[in-house]
Structures are given as C-alpha cells and as structure tokens.
Amino acid sequence: MFGLKLCFYQRLAISLVVVFSMVLSIFFAASVHLQRVTQNEAEQRLHLNLAEHLVQDNPLLQTGVYDYEALKNLFHTLMVMGPNFEFYYLDPNGKVLTYSSEFGPLARDQVELEPILEMLDGSAALPLVGQDPRDAGGEKIFSVAPVYNSQGLQGYIYVIIGGQVFDSIIAGLNRSSAMQQFGLFAVAALIFLLVALLVLFKNFTRPMKILSDDMDRVRAADFDKSVMQQARKLWKRESHNEVHRLGCAFNDMLEHIDTQFERLQQTDIQRRILLADLSHDLRTPLANLQGYIETLDIHNDTLSSDERKRFVDISLKNARNLKHLIDQIFELAYLEAGQVTMSRESFSLGELIHDVSAKFAMQIEAKSLTMNIEFGQQDVFVNTDIGKLERVLTNLIDNAIRHTDSGGTITLAVIQNDNTVRVEIKDTGNGISQNELAFIFDARYQASNQCKDSKIHAGLGLAICKKLTQLLNSELSVTSEVGKGTCFSLNLALESSPSS
Known about the structure:
Helix Hairpins, seven-stranded mixed beta sheet, five-stranded antiparallel beta sheet
C-alpha cells in the first residue's frame, strides 16, 4: 500500500481521516471526563448531609465516641446496607481511629484536613474531593460531619461516596458502555466522513485535477499553440480559491509563451530579411574592392602613377566603408544579445558635450554650418557610462550634420530639471515625415529623407543609439517636421556636483 503513488485527493482524504480520528478521541475523552465530573457533583450534592444525619441519629455519636468496636460494627452494618459508601472515624487531626475492616488494611491512616474544613466551611465548590484511605494516591468525593462531646470537638465522621466495590462495578460497566458508545460514534462519524466529507473534498480537489490535466495535455503536445488555446478558461481571477488563481497564472503563462513564440517567429523573419539586406550592402563595397585590386594586379605595369594612386584610394575607401559597416553589424549584434558591460562613473556633462562637438569642427566648417551649445547657469554632473553616452551623441550629431543643408544650424542643449537633465540634439535640416517617425529606430530602416554621401549607410546607426540609450536607463525620443528640422532627446539621472 505504501508503495502506491497517492494523488492529492487521496493524500488529503487520508490526512483528514487521521485528524478527524484524533479529534474524535479527544472529544470523547473530554466528554467522558465532563460526564464523570457531573456525576460526582450530583452524587456529592445528593449525599452531602449523610454524615451529619449519621451523627445526629446515632446514640454512639450524639454525646461522643467511646466504644470504637461498636462504631466499627455500625460502619460494617451501614456498608452492607449501602455498599456505595465507606465510613471512617477521624480524630481532630485527621488520623483514622476506626473503620470497617471488611476490605483489609488501609493504604494510609492519615487524611488531610484541608478539604474537610473547606467542606464544613460551606464555601467549597462542588464536586470537592478528599483523600481516599484505601488508595495511597487516590481522591474521592465525600461527606463529613464533626463529632462533639462536652469537652468540644472529638473527631469527624468521614464518608467516602463511591467505595472500592462501587468503583469496580462502575468501572466495568463504564468500560463496556464507553466501548459501545465510542464504537457507535466512530462508525457513524466514519460513515459521515466517507459519504459527506469525501464528496465535498472531491469537489474541492476537482479544479486541481482539471488544472493538472491541462498541464499534462499542453506538455504532451510540446506547447503546441492550438492545444494551448484549448486550455480551460473556467478560472476566476478574483477568486479567493488558490487553485483558481493558480489556473489563471497557468493561463497567463501559456499566453506569455504564445506571445514569445510569435515574437521569436517575427524576430526570425526580421533576422532573415536583415541578413539578406546586409549581404547586399556588404557585397557592393567588397565587389568594388575586389575589382580595383584585380585591376591593379593585372594592369599594374601599364597604369600611370596617377591612375595607380586613384585605384588605391578607391580601394581604401571601399575597405573603410566595409569595415564601418561590419563594425556596426557587430555592435548591434552585441547590444541585442546583451553582451555589453556597463562602466559607470561621475563626470561633467558639459565637458563631454564640448569634447564631442570638437570632433565635428572640420565637418561643420566644410559644410558652412553653425553649431550652438546651450547650457544653464552651471555645469551638471551625471553618473553613467561615459563611453556609451559619447557614442550616442556622436551618432546623433553625425546624423544632424548629414541631414542639414549648408547654412543650417545644429544646437546641443542641456536642460536641467529637478532630478534629471535632458540632452537635446536639434537641427534645421530636411526633417522626417510623421508616418515614418515610428520606424526610424528599426534596424535597416532608412527614411525617405536619406542623404547620399561617400559613405555606405545601412540604417543601423539609430538602432544602435536606441539600444545604447536603453542601457543608460533612458529613452531616446524624437520630434520632427518636414522642412523644419529634427530634435532627438534623452534624459539622464542628475548627480550633484562633487565638492571642490
């Protein structure tokens, strides 16, 4: 039996049977104890004045006790008539002076007076027990009355209610009755448990079985989308039942897995398209490079020095374009794979912007552009990866220069807020149409305002900037209007300036 694998319902049922049996035993023991206490109280109240009547009605006790043998015979006669009682005569200190010796010697010949005095005082709560002379450690309910003579207190008549004979008879009857009652009660309880509780718990565990079946079916189908969509939808999200909440969590997990599958499929499609496009972009400079190098190799002796230099310059330009494109591909791949480490440090944002803008001084001058740098009243310090932020600013400024016509203006603005600082790169170039703004950060996307120059542009620059900005815990946003220019902006966490 113990080798069998029990389901949740079976384990719960067995546990409940064991717990219910324990509770039943405790309840039965408490019930027997309460019944015994009630019976003792009733008997003690019924025979409370027994000793007093014995003293008042017996000539031996009315004026004091002098003949202990006669008193012993009296006790014997009374016990024959009422075997439920045991009679003892105690001195004022509680020592047993005489008793009926029918049942042999006593276990102790001294009785504590505290319960006796408490009973005589009349303030005792019943049932009140006193020491049983025939049992060294036992206590019984009793009746007691003082015996006086002309000299004062002579002793006590101490009557044990429910003697040994009575106890042996009652114990046998109680055992038989208790076994019968317990047996009937246990059978009735088990029948109720099997018929009522097990049906109830079956209903309780039914949702768990349904959820388990759903999980088994989805796992067996290897998370097939059609099978996942057939998973039961009976779960109530706001229910207090833990199984319902677990079922909702399972459904949420299936929906998340389904969404992830769709994203993976879409990513795979985009990856294939990207590889095809990049292959085309790589093929052009590679073919040009190969063509000019082959020309140099074949006609090297017949080419003039000027032609040879022109072919070499063209080959170098194609090699640089090819390297730039490969560098961008690898950079985007590393960013998307999360294989990038962050190196945060505190630095002056103003110094970084001045250093980055200085790299474009020759391009600005060659294209007759104006570059403005706008700061607040004081420099600000940020704590982030300076290399990645420089890469973002470099790409955005290079884009702004490329898309701004001669005579235009490029503005680098730093706007300080309460806890952040916003960096803006604005230009007065040709702008981007509103229906294209949502796609300009996608890899390989090139807007219709794409400018032609001597370099190959694969549409990866803004995608790289977007990924780098996310690593900086920021968000790259854009606003633009065709013919009026474009503004890229990002927010950085502000850090207080270090003390001098």
